[in-house]
Design goal:
Keywords: Ligase. By secondary structure, the protein is an alpha/beta fold. It has helices at 5-13, 29-46, 63-75, 88-98, 135-141, 176-190, 207-211, 214-220, 232-242, 251-259, 283-290, 366-372, 411-419, 454-459, 490-500; strands spanning 18-21, 26-28, 54-58, 78-82, 102-105, 121-124, 156-161, 171-175, 197-200, 223-226, 246-249, 273-277, 296-300, 310-311, 326-327, 332-336, 349-354, 373-374, 377-386, 392-397, 402-404, 407-409, 424-434, 438-447, 473-477. The chain has a nine-stranded mixed β-sheet, with helices on both faces. The relative contact order is 0.08.
Amino acid sequence: MDIGRWIDRHAGFTPDKVALRTAREEISYADLASRIDRAARAMVGELGLVRGDRIAYLGLNSAEQIVLTFAAARAGLSIVPLNWRLAGPEHAFILKDSEAKVLFVEQSFCDHINDPIPNMRMVGSDFSAGGITSLADLMETAGDGDVKWGGGPKEPLLLCYTSGTTGRPKGAVLTQEAILCNALNAQHMHDMTADDHVLTVLPMFHVGGLNIQTSPVLHCGGTVTLHARFDPAATLRDIAALRPTLTVQVPATMEAMIRHPEWQSTDLSSLRVVATGSTDVPTNLIEAFHARDLPVIQIYGSTETAPVAVYQRSDDAPSRFGSIGRVGLHTEVRLVDADGQDVPDGEAGEILVRGKHVATGYWNDPEQTAKAFQDGWFHSGDIAHRDKDGWLWFRDRVKNVIISGGENIYPAEIERVLREVPGIVEVAVVGRPDERWGAAPIAVVACDDPSMTPDCVAAAFEGRLARYKHPKDVFIVEALPRNAMGKVKLDTVRELVGALGPAAS
């Protein structure tokens, strides 16, 4: 049974209940089910797509994207959600790599596709202009006859491309079964029911925006209020006015909300919990939410895990501050050393994940698939340790670890100290070759305090970390380089550090 049937079943039980709310409209479960059915018919009948074909979506969060995703499931297609922050050539690479047959595109993003993509048709997701047919037009002409549907649990559904901080992006292949299993983990994480109302402000081109709360609450029969993109004022306004019970935020959006002048005066009492996901969430952000009586629960996962793999629950938020959580209900996790052997509690090891929510591999990339997916386990490249009670604590990325004089130094540990220094707004710590020690940690920071000096930064480590962990050099820059997903481009930082050479500090 394809996951589009979730919506059909809820349309039978609660046809008039609001499934989706956008700035333009409210869509009931009955209406959403009808749109999904007509969109699937249009894909098969009007566009001639067949089981296994790929479609792509380029646009902000919209009801159309939800419809296309469930319609693709019905027809046995895969959907490639494109990051609208990328440049045209980056979009072109993904469209060519995925061999997308149809691109559904918002009008404002048409100019991102400058050159024709071989064997690909463009369809407007919400408009008819410049000779491009719209999805709405196709749905109007879709027939009512019998259609041989191709969707099912094992069919690939989401082809989500990773951000590609160290090279070309890779397309993680997530099946319909993976989306279902992920939804079950997410429901356990949030104690989610049909009474929940999710406010989605994160982009749904990423699994975080689509699968931490949005698709799981639709599986439950709840309601989603969808913002086209994140805006702190709009987020605070709708929390107060629409009374959602759940939302997902990342550190950048949490900070934007905290800094907004309406933060303290906004009624946030409808929210049962705020979920956040990142490799390392600054504790000061969590504390600011807790000060407003808002429990913040952390989730650990990745594009390849759909992403819900390790998480906290609401009762855990105060007592396990900073932990990424316990292993999910439908997940297995191992922590292993460089030889692939399980490490004891308290020792750091790479996180390996197994479960039906894990990707089957990378699209059209057998070499990278073989490296990351071995014997049923996804090798995350992240390091954590497990305490005696089974709680996991994130350390760093494997590739970021600095081996200095035979000791492992985790940049994330140094960055946590730097984030507590008043006047520092961005931090990155990377390794630099060192003749004596093999490698040494180097700190690169951006500050909003013009009086900040490298010596002031270095002084923050006294009595906080072992001497060998102290940065050997500190560079102050105007801003850190980031990719389209907002992640710091560590390779560029390393190049910068190498070009600058030893600093006076």
